[in-house]
Amino acid sequence: MLDRLTIERLRGGGRPLVLALSGGGDSVALLHLLVEALGPSGARAVIVDHGLREGSGADAARAKAFADALGAPAEVLTLAWPPGVNRAQQAARGARYKALCAFARREGLSAIVTAHTADDQAETVLMRAGAGSSWRGLAGMAPLASAPVWPEGRGMMVGRPLLGARRTALREFLRQRSAHWIEDPANANPAYERVRVRARLAALEQHGFDPMRLARMADRLGQHAAALDVAAFDLIAAAAVLQDDAIQIVRERWQGPRAVRLRALAVLVAAASGAARAPHAGEVEMAEARMMEAGLSFGGVLFAPAAGGVQLTREPSAVLGRAGVSPLAALALPEGEEVVWDGRLAIAAHEPGWRAVAARDPGLVAFERASTRLTLRDFSAAARVSPLAQARIHHLLNRLTQ
Are the CB atoms for 64 and 118 separated by under 8 Å? Predict the structure, then answer.
């Protein structure tokens, strides 16, 4: 049941994996399988208590007890929700991954494993099809991918070593071991789309439809997505030059199939803007057709003619503000702790008291402490500043970094 190839690719140097343990049947089965394959110290179980329902704390403690019983290190992370913050499922998912990434970074780890199954894959494909997703969306979840949050997930990989296993098989595995798990009441609440889709697939399966056809389709499309990413990476390597806070595309080298160019440009726009998501291929078509023209602004990026091509830089108004839109808020820079400005610059100040603010300076940022104000270049003596464009490219084309 356990995809050992995914595990091997994640365990660089034999470091422990961070296991996202909910206490449900799938993640408890993964816990048992990892302990069996890697030993009790091969995984660090992390239970994220979202705090969204009564009894979640008790369930988190029980999930930790499952890990304790197997001798696996475990920790509970309780999320804090400021008043008025969106607590919908998608927001909870993002907060969960951010917490997992923060834990992994603090512990010097870079690989997270989740217990997504073949059934989860089939449900994901059907949900995305219903939402009108592109073929890339129908590729579903990859066995190995970058963490789905930015910039918190930079350098973090997520593995799904149970993506080929059925949910029923995992529960039978636990029953044979007389192991216990928790049934989340949310999994029976039809208010959630995934619960409705799960019931629909179960009904179809009773009438002869095999949901695994959807999972197999996702696998085939995933192979096409991986091949497209390889070609896009090659095009970026040949035609794009990264320069501090700018990316230059060389016109004569910007060659290849249209789908490859669109994927590459989407990635470069995300790298230049620091955006949490890359624009979809359909949104990039107009920009690709006009990108050599003067004055194009797209996806938070300004396209400007440059010698032999075009230069991509952060759109100033996206940082400095415009009518009805406030500038980016000032960012405190704790001494010795790396923080990210605008999704584009990783900054670790060597001295206390500094903050980053939006400014018409290089990188659209300046640094203030008391009465002192420094530009990005001047501030390099007081901090380690690392542009994240290259990291963002690898984050979006992660299959190439393994």
Answer: no
